[in-house]
Amino acid sequence: MKPTNQIPFVTSCRAVTGLALALTLTAAGIRPAAAFSNADADTLFNSYNTAFYSGSGNAYYKNYKSGGDTGFWQQAEEIETAIDAANRNSSYTSQVTALVNGFDGIRQTSWSYNTYNDDVMWACIAHLRAYSLTGNTTFRNIAKSNFDMAYARSYDTVNGGFYWTSANNSKNSAVNGPASIVAYKLYQAYGDSTYLTKAQNICNWQRANCWNSTTGQVYDSPGSQTPTTYNQGTFIGANDNLGWTGGATLACNYLMTMGGGMTNGYHIMPEYGTNNNNSGFNGIGVRWAAAYMKNRGLQSSYLGWLQANAEQAWNIRRLSDGLSWCQWDETLINGDYVGSWDCSSSIAALQDVPPTE
Amino acid sequence: MSRSLAVKFVVGGGVLLCALVWWSGRQPAKMISTMEQKAGANPASSSPDKIIPPQKDLGALPAPARPLVPFWQDQLFALQAVTNSLFGASADDFMKELQTFAEGVDIADLPDILKKLQELQAQKPTVIGRDLELRLLRRWSGSDARSAAEWAAQTPPEVHDEALMSAAGDWAKQDLAAATAWAGQLPADGDRQNALKSVAGVLAYSDPQKSLALAAALPADSGRDEIITCAAGIWAANAPKDAAAWAVQIPDDTLRLQVVSATAMSWGDSDSSSAANLAINSLPAGEVQNKTVLAIVQRWGLKDAAAASAWVAQFPQGDLRQAAMDAITADKDRSRPPAF
C-alpha cells in the first residue's frame, strides 16, 4: 500500500464525530474520556478505602460509608480487588492480609454453613490469590479444606459439574467457572495433579453445557442462555489456566461485544444497577480478561477495549469523594447513594488494566 | 561417490544426529514453559481446543548414552539458588515453572534429584528449594508412594511435617490399608499422629465412619477436631440420624457443639424440619446455635420459603429472628441476572 499523509475517510469521520461527541458531553456536564495512569489507580483505590474500609478489629469493607456488611461473596470479591491493587502496588499487601484475616474472623474458616457453592468458590479464589501474594499457607489450607468440602457435598460424580447449592438440584456457570479456577489454583499451589484433573473436568462440563462454541457466549445455566460479564470472565480464566486458548479467546471476543454504550468504537460493559447482587459483575469480567491478555500477550486484540472501559470507569468518578460506580455509561454525581460493592468494578478495572500513560 | 566416502558420510551424519538428540535433552526445563504446558502433566491429551502436531519418530535412532551430568542438574541448581521470594505478583508464573520442572523430570531420577536438592538445601536453604522439594515428593508419591513416604519420614525439620503428611495422604488415596499400617508403626509419636491424621483426613471423604474411628483415637487438637467435624458432616449427608445420634454423645463440650452443628447443617439439605429440631434441642442458645439455625433457614428458604418463614416467625423478637428473615429475603433477591 502506498504511504499517504492524507487522513483516511473513516478516521476523519471518527475524528469529527468524536469532536462533536466531546462538545456534546461537555455541554451536558460530562467529562470527555481521559487517559489514566498508575497514580490514578492508586488514587481511586485510596478513595475507595477512605470511604469503605474498616481496619479496626476484623478488617472488612463496609456496605456503605455509614457501615453494614456487603455479604459473603461480595466481600470475597472486594478482597480480590484489594489483591489486584497489591499486585500492581505492593504497598497494599498488608491490607490484603488484614482483609483475609478479617474475613476468616467474621465468617470463620469452615464455610459449610453457606449453602451456595459459588460463594465458597469466590472465597477460595480470594484466599488462594492472597496466598500467592503473601505466602501465608493458612490462606491456602483454608481454601483447600473448603473446596474439598464443597466438592464432597456437591460435585456430580456421575454426570459432571458442580451443583449451585448444597441442595444439589441445579447447575450453572456461577459456580462451575470459579470452581475450575479454584481447582487449578490448588493444583498450582500444592502440585497435586488430582486438582488439575478436577479443573479440567469442571471446565469440560461448563463447555459442554453452558457455552456456545460458535459465538463464545457463556450461558448462565443449561436452561438459561443469558450471558453476563462475570460468567464470561471466569470462563476465560478457567480456560486460560488449562491452556484451552480457543475457548478463552471466543469467550473474550464475546465479552468485547457486551454492553450498549460505546467509547472510541469499543463497547462499554453493561450496567447491572446498584445495590444488588450483580453490581460487581463487570470487575470480575475485566479481571479475567485482563489476565488472559497479559498471560498470552494478546494486547493487540484486547488492550484498547479494556483501556476504554477502565478509562470510562475513571472518567465517571465523582470528584467530591473520588468514587466511581458500576454504571459506566453515567457519571456518578452527588446525591447518588452508592455502596462499596457498587464501586468495586471500577477499582478492579483501574488495577487490572495497564494504564494508558 | 566412493564407497568409503559414503560410509564416512553416513557415520558422520549419525554421530551428528546423536549429538543433536543428546544436546536437545540437556536444554533446561524452561523449554516446556509454553502456554500449552501450563496445564500440567499431560495437557495436550486433554485440550479440547488444540490440535497437537505429531511428534517426530526417533525410534530408529540409537539410544544416546546416559550423560555424566544428569539433564536436570543445571536447572535444579538454578532454581534452588533463586533467593527471591516465591510470592508476590509473579507467584503464579514462578509456581508454574517449578511445577513444570517437577513434572518434566524422569520418575526414575526423582530419588537422585531429591537427594541433591536436600544437599543444596542443607548448604543454603531457600524458600523455592523447599517448595520444589514438596512438589517433587508429590510427583514421586504418584508412582511409588511407599518410597516417597519413607523418604519423607527422613527429611530434616524444615520440611518434615509437611512432607510426611503430604506423603501419607497421597498414599492413603492409593492404598488406604498400606498407608494406615505404615503410619501406625512410625516410631516418633508426633510423626505417627501427623501421618494418621493425614490418613483420617483423606478417609473423611470416602469413608467418614472409619475416619471418625481413626481420628477419635488421636490426641485432641484443632486439626483432629476439624477432621472429625468434616467427617461427621459428610456422614450426615448420607445417614443423618446415625450421625446425629453419634454426635450428641461426644463427651467434650466444645467438640460436641461443633459436630452437632455440622451434622444439623448437613441434614438441613435433605430434611430441614429434622435439622431444625436437632439444632434447637441439642445446641445451647448462643453463637453456635444461631449460626446453625441461620444455615438451616437458608437451605429451607431455597426449597420452601413459606415454610421457612413460618418457622422463623415463631422465634422470639430479636437479632436472630431478623437475621433469619433477612436470609430468606436475600436468597429471594438472588435471582437470575438480567438479559442485555
Q: Summarize the amount of helix of chain B as a percent range.
A: over 70%
Tell me the distance between the termini of chain A: 31 Å
Class by helix and strand content of chain B?
mainly alpha
Strand content of chain A: under 5%
Count up the helices of chain A: 13
Q: Total number of β-strand segments of chain B?
A: 0
Write a structural description:
The complex is a heterodimer of chains A (357) and B (340). Chain A is 58% helix and 4% strand. By secondary structure, chain A is mainly alpha-helical. In chain A, the strands form two sheets. In chain A, strands 1-2-3 form a three-stranded antiparallel sheet. In chain A, strands 4-5 form a two-stranded antiparallel sheet. In chain A, a hairpin with a 2-residue loop joins strand 4 (262-263) and strand 5. Chain A is globular, with a radius of gyration of 20 Å. Residues 1-33 of chain A have low confidence and may be disordered. With 340 residues, chain B is mostly helical. The model of chain B is unreliable at 18-45, 51-59 and 336-340 (pLDDT under 50). The chains are: A mainly alpha (357), B mainly alpha (340). Chains A and B meet through helix 3, helix 5, helix 6, helix 7 and helix 8 of A and helix 4, helix 6, helix 12, helix 14 and helix 16 of B.
SSE map:
The complex is a heterodimer of chains A (357) and B (340).
Chain A: H1 9-27, H2 38-52, E1 53-54, E2 60-64, E3 67-69, H3 72-88, H4 93-107, H5 117-134, H6 137-154, H7 173-190, H8 193-209, H9 229-241, H10 245-256, E4 262-263, E5 266-267, H11 281-296, H12 299-315, H13 340-352
Antiparallel strand pairs in A: 1-2, 2-3, 4-5
Helix pairs in contact in A: 2-13, 3-4, 3-5, 3-13, 4-5, 5-6, 5-7, 6-7, 7-8, 7-9, 9-10, 9-11, 11-12, 11-13, 12-13
Chain B: H1 3-26, H2 43-46, H3 73-81, H4 91-104, H5 110-123, H6 127-143, H7 145-153, H8 157-174, H9 176-184, H10 189-206, H11 208-216, H12 222-238, H13 240-247, H14 253-268, H15 272-282, H16 287-303, H17 305-313, H18 319-333
Helix pairs in contact in B: 3-5, 4-6, 5-6, 6-7, 6-8, 7-8, 8-9, 8-10, 9-10, 10-11, 10-12, 11-12, 12-13, 12-14, 13-14, 14-15, 14-16, 15-16, 16-17, 16-18, 17-18
